[in-house]
Amino acid sequence: MLAKIVAIARKDLQVYFADRKAMLISIAVPIAIASFFGFVMVPSGGSSAPTKIQTLIVEEDTGPLMDEILAEIKKNDAIDPRIVKREEAEEKVKKGDVGVAVIFPKGFGDAAKRALFNNQPPKLEVLYDPSKSMDRQVVEGALMQSLMSKITQAGMTGESARDNLEMAIQSTTNPKRKAAWEGFLSAWNDLDASGGSPGRPGVGGMSEPFKIESKAMTAAKDSDADAASGRAHVFAGLGIQGILFFAIDAAMSLLREKRIGLWTRIRASQTSATTILLGRGLGSTLIALLILACVLAFGMVAMGIRVEGSWLALGIVAAASALMTATFGLLVASLGKTEQQSRGLSILAVLMMAMLGGAWFPIWLMPGAIQTVSKAVPVRWAVEGLDSALWRGGGLSTALVPTLWLLGFSILFAGIAAWRFKSA
Q: Is the pLDDT of residue 407 over 90?
């Protein structure tokens, strides 16, 4: 029995090592994936400066305090602020071009200074793309750091501090709080009379000078909009990856037909290579569209995903994605020599496209250079088109650019496949 076990194992090893290219591919695939994650997720060294988060600033308030606040924000190492109008900020965040926008409402500075004493903090509006929620957390932390020092300093120095104290005494209806503020004002006056300076006293017992009101820029208006958009993005990305894996199976089927001579027999029946490829492409497109539709439908039924944008746009992008998938399968079959080699290489290609295209995790997590390279990956356009229709609330016009890119990739893949099969 032991001899038989050893013989079977020896046979499998011989088969594995017989195809050197397939063997090398099986080793190269995990190395390539591990290298990708190592480069993207782990910094290569500590010497390079961290990438600042681009943040749009809407300055509806003006005045010396706002100038100081903006100057302080610009000094922050975490964010890269740019002044825009409200309409531009809302549009860019909603489209996903920028992750975060901060809106300083009119009268914010004066209201924030008074809020130290009257417990009526103004709202600082933060608009964010839910697929970049980590950016929002970083920006909000940077805002707290930059604003608290400037607002506290402005509210607790000079004549404005005495005015704020007097306003707090007049406006409060709580006897204990009123007595405390009166004592504070009396001590303040005594310090001034003695020739001292109140400087920057502590702020114990004071109110927070502002509140941050975060708003996810999705078409959905309910409280679950943030989580729903995340689920929609996951189903869109992994749905595209799923149909690309189907394309590998379709390619292996075509290679198997060539290996056993079925391709030659079909060609002998006066059927052109173009006809065969069109037939296989049409069938694969319909199957891929069915798979993607089922994945999204399950997400809608089981996970509460909703189409907040145009159903027609969703259908157009899905159809273009299915066509791209079908032609990718034909490309794999046209380039492959053996099923083992082609399967390994195509799996690597699909995984790399899925990672670069944002199917696994948001593109903004990647280094800037890789984000630029990802524009040449069809998965990115498929995921962006589906995201726009599913949760960004995009209309038919938003499907135009992703669809054109997907059709362009389809033409490229189909053209190479047709040339390869005709010359074979």
A: yes
Does 254 lie in the same domain as 210? no
**Considering the domain boundaries, does residue 242 fall inside one?**
yes
Measured in whole angstroms, the distance separating CA 248 from the mean position of its chain's CA atoms is 27
Indicate whether 327 belongs to any domain: yes
Same domain, 212 and 124: yes
CA distances from 298 to 219, 223, 292, 319 (A): 21, 22, 10, 18
Task: State how far the Cα of 152 lies from the Cα of 203, in Å rounded to an integer.
Answer: 8
CATH code, 66 = 3.40.1710.10
| Tokens found for residue 244 | 């690309």
Query: Domain range holding 59?
Result: 53-156+202-216
Instruction: Kindly indicate the confidence band of residue 170, based on its pLDDT and cuts at 50, 70 and 90.
Output: low
Structural domain count, the chain: 2
List, for residues 302-327, the tens digit of each pLDDT value: 888 888 889 999 999 999 999 999 99
Instruction: Give the pair of three-digit tokens for residue 17.
Output: 């090592």
Same domain, 136 and 64: yes
Closest CA to 390 of 297, 309, 316, 291: 309
**301 part of a folded domain:** yes
Within-domain flag for 195:
no
Q: Which three-class secondary structure state does DSSP give residue 269?
A: coil
pLDDT in tens, 337-369: 777 778 878 888 898 899 888 888 777 667 777
Element (H, E) at 216: strand 211-216
**Distant-in-sequence contacts of 275-283, Cβ < 8 A, 24+ apart:** 276/421, 277/330, 277/414, 277/417, 277/418, 277/421, 280/250, 280/254, 280/326, 280/330, 281/323, 281/326, 281/327, 281/330, 281/414, 282/326
| Cα distance between residue 243 and residue 324, in whole Å | 10
